[in-house]
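Subject: design request, 339 residues
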């Protein structure tokens, strides 16, 4: 997903706090927003409704989310790097001396058509929005425009985390520090390490994540492509051990055809076969043609695709073991009943 403004993180606060790359500028749009609704006051003698139109001037949704993120207490389920498991993480929120006003700045109402009064309401809303925003920033970020948010897990040890945000003069916010690190919060590879014969795969996925956290998307794409290639060749070597593949045909084939050959022989997951026509092309284009920004934009989707391939690989290994165990037990039963 593309995250360009702060409200894009609504519903994804933990990702912003613990997993979003450092020093990535996120726009806080302060422009006034409007919504409209109608109110029926009654009906005239011809049964025609008397309608009042209301235009509500609101603080921008980026500003509203910033206030929610900072001031409201949080209680969410997330991975604790110290406990090595998921549990509730809490934050009491930033206490303010005065309660924040509701997000509505003012409301302009009319019955038949808008008048010149609308411009006055519009101008008042713009000034009031700026005033409220500046007052909030002064209370929260102070003179240096830096904010530290503190969290703790709900285990008996109450492990503590913190995240530091910097606000820029041109209304961007960026995360400039956190503890534990982004990588410490990444638990996505734990279940795959047991089935990956090439342990370099996990190291390279970690390297890709490190580069992504520093906004070096092209390098991150390179590691993802290497992982994709290693997964293919790992399955090729397995097919060789089982004498179930023509090595010359495989080695001379293009990458797409390599995947197709392995899939037809049951060595790669279905999902990999489904995305095979384009995933390698995307990764290669990222390495050779795309900009850092474009690679950063698409990285999460490509990484998720790699993880889905690994997930299906885990399922394949488990299914194979189950088949072998079941076959062994059936043979034992058959032998016993044949006596």
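Subject: RE: design request

Done. Sequence follows.
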């Amino acid at each position: 997903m593309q995250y360009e403004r702060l409200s894009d993180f609504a519903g994804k606060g933990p990702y912003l706090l613990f997993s979003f790359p450092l020093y990535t500028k996120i726009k806080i749009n302060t422009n006034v927003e409007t919504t409209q609704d109608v109110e029926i006051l009654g009906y005239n003698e011809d049964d025609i409704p008397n309608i009042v139109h209301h235009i509500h001037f609101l603080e921008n949704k980026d500003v509203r989310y910033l206030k929610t993120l900072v001031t409201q207490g949080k209680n969410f389920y997330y991975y604790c790097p110290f406990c090595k498991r998921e549990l509730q993480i809490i934050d009491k929120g930033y206490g303010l001396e005065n309660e924040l006003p509701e997000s509505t700045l003012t409301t302009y109402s009319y019955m038949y058509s808008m008048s010149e009064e609308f411009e006055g309401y519009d101008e008042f809303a713009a000034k009031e929005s700026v005033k409220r925003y500046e007052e909030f920033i002064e209370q929260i970020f102070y003179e240096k425009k830096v904010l530290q948010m503190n969290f703790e897990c709900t285990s008996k040890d109450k492990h503590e985390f913190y995240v530091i945000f910097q606000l820029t003069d041109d209304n961007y916010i960026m995360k400039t520090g956190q503890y534990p690190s982004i990588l410490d919060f990444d638990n996505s590879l734990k279940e795959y390490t047991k089935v990956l014969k090439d342990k370099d795969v996990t190291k390279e996925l970690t390297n890709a994540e490190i580069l992504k956290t520093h906004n070096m998307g092209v390098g991150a794409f390179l590691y993802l492509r290497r992982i994709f290639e290693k997964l293919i060749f790992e399955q090729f070597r397995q097919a060789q051990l089982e004498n179930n593949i023509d090595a010359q045909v495989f080695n001379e084939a293009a990458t797409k055809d390599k995947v197709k050959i392995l899939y037809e022989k049951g060595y790669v997951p279905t999902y990999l076969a489904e995305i095979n026509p384009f995933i390698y092309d995307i990764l290669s284009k990222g390495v050779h043609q795309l900009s850092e920004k474009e690679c950063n934009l698409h990285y999460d989707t490509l990484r998720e695709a790699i993880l889905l391939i690994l997930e299906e690989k885990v399922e394949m290994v488990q299914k194979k073991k189950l088949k072998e165990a079941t076959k062994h037990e059936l043979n034992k039963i058959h032998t016993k009943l044949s006596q």
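The CA atoms of residues 235 and 267 lie 6 Å apart.
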